[in-house]
What we know:
disordered N terminus, 5-stranded mixed beta barrel, flat, 17 helices
Amino acid sequence: MRRLLPLIFLMHVFFHGEAGLGQGRAALTHVQEVKALTNAQASQHLTVKIEATVTYLRPVEKNLFVIDNGVGIYVRFGEDIGLIPGDRIEVTGYTEPSFRPIVVAKKVSFLNHGSMPVAQPATFADLIRSRWDAGFVEVTGHVMSAALDGGQPYQSLRIRIKVPGGTVEGIVAHPGKLEPADLLDADVRMRGVAGGEFDSKMQMAGVWLDIDSWQEVTLLRAHPADSWSLPLIPMDEVVFAYRFSNESKRVRITGTLTYFEPGALAVVEQNGRSMLVKTNSTLPMHAGVGVEATGFPTVAEENVRLEDGELRPVALSAQIRPQIIDWEDASAGKYAYNLVAMEGEVVGLVHDSRVDLFIVLSEGHLFSATLRHTSSDAYRPASDQQTPTIGSRVRVSGVCFMDSGNHWRDRLWFDLRMRSLDDVAVLRQPSWWTVKRMAYIVTAMSAVILIAVLWAGMLDRRLRRQTAILAKQSQEDAIRERRLARQEQERSHILELISSSAPLPEVLREIQAMVSSRLYGVSCWFELHSGSEDGSSAERPRGPAIVFQELFSHEGASLGFILATPRLQSSAEIDISSALVAGARLAELAIDTRRLYSDLRHRSEYDLLTEIPNRFSMDRHLDQLMLSGRRSEAFFGLIYVDLDHFKQVNDRYGHRIGDLYLQEVTRRMKLQLRTEDVLARIGGDEFIALAPILRGRADAEEIAVRLERCFDELFELEGLRIHGSASVGLAVYPEDGSNKEELQRSADAAMYANKEAKREGRFGTVAGSRRLQQFGSRNLSDLSA
Length: 785
């Protein structure tokens, strides 16, 4: 079982919430203080405010491992704020119990980027005892298996090495240029965060390292020979290479693939002999192809098999046909892991999301035949054949997997693992006339007689009720006319609210009231998709059946639903449907009207290509900062960014590449800014970044340098590699200007000074442009020319 920390966190928040987390206690300010806690102390949700260095980020969960003064802990955060290993951060949150106390972060702030800590050499004995838990360590060993794991949302590389005392698995989040074939049987050094496999009781069950990238894996000695060049050996001689512990030598076998569960196991058979191969391989292979397999022999559950196996397809003409056997031979283990076929009668069927199970009676004995959905052939299109039912006579083909734990002379429980539904063939369907079906027929005839008697009594009662219904119908017609008039008034009122741009929640509440009134006061509410403004207020009732009508925009996209819980004694179903349709049409009109207004406002404030504020929006932000700065005597930074040679990008590669270049530039610059900073596009190749919170000019200069340096890496756009650069100018309020115009002129002058300095090769940095800013202010017109 992998780490259970995310699941534990979600369960705790669901049942207990975050109220009262460590209130009234002094905050823990050092990683060492958190590490020294017991789980009992951590369960009190102590407040934490620490500074530490990031050592690893989990790509999917976005959680962190951090370290300070050689002590590491796990931080549950779940947000991507652009951190990388080596970043110095401040974490604010509270403690939680787990395998060791962890920190649940409510806020993570970037401080600066520093260097990674020195990896500490670790032994297997220390790792399995968790003495280096969450610490940054290095281990050296011999690679037993290496495979790309494509089962995750991202592709990682799993490397298993043997070290003195055991094995360690490394999970490389960003494999880069590492190739599994180059690592197999090599000696490597891995640096990463120490962790482990855990069982359901949160006890250590194995050792692994969380490794950030390929740069943390060093090849010490390449493999002496290609694993696929080892001599082929017969399967019954595989055990000759077995050694105690993890000292076995790698061997190579060949044969036909008879069963394959990608990432788990495979069975290879040749000349009546078969071998189970444990493997992490996820190659797209199917039963019946020729394969070669390499791995380390081991004896487990009184069977020889290969561990840490690698597979590859080869040309092989021999086809394996199932050998027909009986229960005596199968239970004696003579055909363990061989492709066999058995006949019997189906006495039980089980189908769920993971397996299809057939219980078969053969020669007075039961055995199971299973189709695991993880098999590579499980979803192969089945041929047109009869479907087995209970009582069918079938022939089942599959690989004979034996149960473990019994002596070889005893009868063993076995399981035929099928590859697809084609492996079960119906020989004879069960007889139609059975005792069970006879009982069904007698029961049905008795029911018909009973219904006829009841119908005669009900007919008389229905005639008496018909007179009463006719008398009430006239009264109901009058009531219906009055209700229709009131409904039309309600509809007119809602249309007036929509045309007057009333708030959407208010309009939706009026629509709810209208629909509820038409359905005699039943509960009614809206459930809108994410992005729509929710006008619902009542919790979804339980008990009665729920009816609904879907809402659509004028473009045909689904907006959500209007739902109601009509009482059983309410009006006919046609009235329910018409009421919901009427409410849905009004809600669609209100939502589309509000969205049109919001879209127009968004287009006026944001650049449509880069989805960042435009010049109009930036001016408003700058006016607000000026007003705030005059009131509180605070200072802020304005950074002017002008892309170098952008016109050449458009002229050379076309406007599509130019647009992609601008989008990538925007993404990179946003990653260099803090949460509170604002980036705006004010022209074709001109940007302004506002830094509203500064501790000093150095903070603004650091941001400007990061913006300029983010162009150092090549831009790769649709196969093109483009060198990008930008000239950056910085101005700080009120030092460089007491009003908006002066501040923009100062930043513009600094930018042109920076651009001119790069042309002449004098400075070429933001710091250099600071020394030329005064010169640039006096000669702005000359630089522009």
